[in-house]
Amino acid sequence: MLQEKYYPNKEFAKQARIKNMCEYNELMEWAKEDYEGFWDHWAREKIDWIEPYEKVLDESDAPFYKWFVGGKLNVTQQCIDRHIEVRKNKAAIIFEGDRGDRQIITYLRLYREVNRMANLLRNEFGVKKGDRVVLYMPMIPEAAYAMLACARIGAIHSVVFGGFSAEALRDRIQDAEAKVIITADGAYRKGAPYMLKPVVDQALEEGCPSVEKVLVVQRNNEDIIWIGGRDYSYNEMIESQPDTCEPEVMDSEDPLFLLYTSGSTGKPKGVQHSQAGYILWAQMTMEWVFDVKENDTYWCTADIGWITGHTYIVYGPLAAGATTVMFEGVPTYPDAGRAWKMVEELRINQFYTAPTAIRVLHKLGEHEPEKYDLSSLKVLGTVGEPIDPPAWKWYYEVVGGGKCAIVDTWWQTETGGHMISPLPGATPVKPACATFPLPGIMAEVLERDGTPVAPGEQGLLCITRPWPSMIRTIWGDPERFKKSYFGDVVKEGQPVYFSGDGAVVDEEGYITITGRVDDVINVSGHRMGTAEIESAIKKHPHVAEVAVVGRPDPIKGESIFAYIVLKDDIPDNLGEEVELTKEINEVIAREIGNIAKADAIVVVPGLPKTRSGKVMRRILRAIAKGEEIKQDISTLEDPSIVAKIQEAVRCAGC
Ligand code: WT7
Hints:
Largest sheet: 8 strands, mixed
Number of helices: 19
Helix content: 25-40%
CATH class of the domain at 34-284: Alpha Beta
Distance between the termini: 36 Å
Shape: globular
Number of strands: 31
CATH superfamily of the domain at 34-284: ANL, N-terminal domain
Bound molecules: 5'-O-[(S)-butoxy(hydroxy)phosphoryl]adenosine
CATH architecture of the domain at 34-284: 3-Layer(aba) Sandwich
Radius of gyration: 25 Å
Low-confidence stretches: none
Strand content: 15-25%
């Protein structure tokens, strides 16, 4: 049976950049026939080069691909300077604080703020091209200034999400050998102040000799400790900085930023992105997928600690000369109408959020959107995890009033920008389906040997040609880069990029993402490695063995389920288990952050292992779901363990 389709709004399609599937197909054909010519065209048309490149794509050292070889540019000129001539008084950033305070930052003001911060970093702190700067920031305009200030002077920023713990922050500071940390005293959430600076203090207590200076933005003015010679107040220093700053001339392939993400093994990976290829695709996807126009107001609810915040709050919208909304708070405070009230008051035209947020807003206020004037909305986006048809339909009917395009955008930290997504003026969409690769992106669903899967069968989602905004390497570990992404699938003798996701293609070529096929789980659109959570849990002194799996969750997409085997000398009685569960979650919060806390922790007598000692996670996933075990368990070292684990899960009431 063919799934129902929703066609683009005709009025919208008329004015869209890509107006129908013929235009889409033409672009795709062009890319297939003349791949380099296609990208050459866009790179020339879109980017303000300081010096032109000599070669579009260098594949000689695959998979270390190089794009726009020899080109010189500065990303902040693309995002700011070139707009000064034509839209200096246009709002670049509209900031809304948790408590409703607003700021409008025009392009001219953004230019001045970024240059001042760049001067501060360069002249007062001695930050040079190639130095790493870690940002541990709330969602305030200074976070965007800091990212851009780094880009202005050629420093490599590494934003660490504010929900990570001191331990996790320290790991990332150490791996990047950061010279400067930029943070804030704290900010506001749900009407109350919360703190960040104490976490930085704790992270720096030991083992961070690379860090020379800490710049502190005073947002909530709560009391913090100042360490002389190390900590400096941004608010005090910024006033005296000159508001022009010579941009560093950067090579296309110089690193722009690192962003740490979880993989299937323990240590987070520092995904390294480039200058030219990254900014090109950030801008192009802003234009194609959101179809942002000169007078539009665009709002992405992500946090700048994730790639969505990088590409679709800061770099993409600003490169496109758009107005981007930055929101400090949460969409459910003070009530479930907050987001819709903002859409009404700011007349938001494009709204981009995660399925978890959609499900939460749906649950808390099914009819809430109807109380607000949401007629300004044109495009609604989702990202981060598969969306389910009921949430999709509510988004479409109730939020979008049946007239907005829904763009279900599939991409990853590693891809830099959207890869598979509907085009709002062209693509007939099927609910909860990411549809087709964007023009220029060669996405295919393959078997391990590189053959395409049959329609309806699940396969591995791969990108079979390099693309401009792709990950360049894992910071400090090129071998791991190769192994993680170019080790599993080989097409026609050539290793191709494997995303870690499974997908299905239907008879019409529509791609539906089915989720990770590796040991990575996705909780509320946050990506977490089970190995990372396991190594945190192992730090609890009573734990002998642990296995963590994801379990489907109606709101969060997936939740974290941990199976624990206690050390021999620890009695496992139920009374203590409640305490143990609490303690284990405290360990997780300390080692990683609250976002990685487990929803279910069950003490079991053993794990289901093969004779060679491999833990059969598939069985653990099935038990967590409450499913019958269909697979053959006779190959287990101890087949009777399965029933014992099931019994333990039942007793624990999980
Ligand atoms: C993983 C990447 C991309 C920005 C946010 C997350 C999942 C992402 C979709 C989508 C189904 C999706 C994938 C992917 N994912 N978008 N539209 N439909 N799944 O970035 O933390 O790098 O996570 O998120 O599993 O591999 P990330």
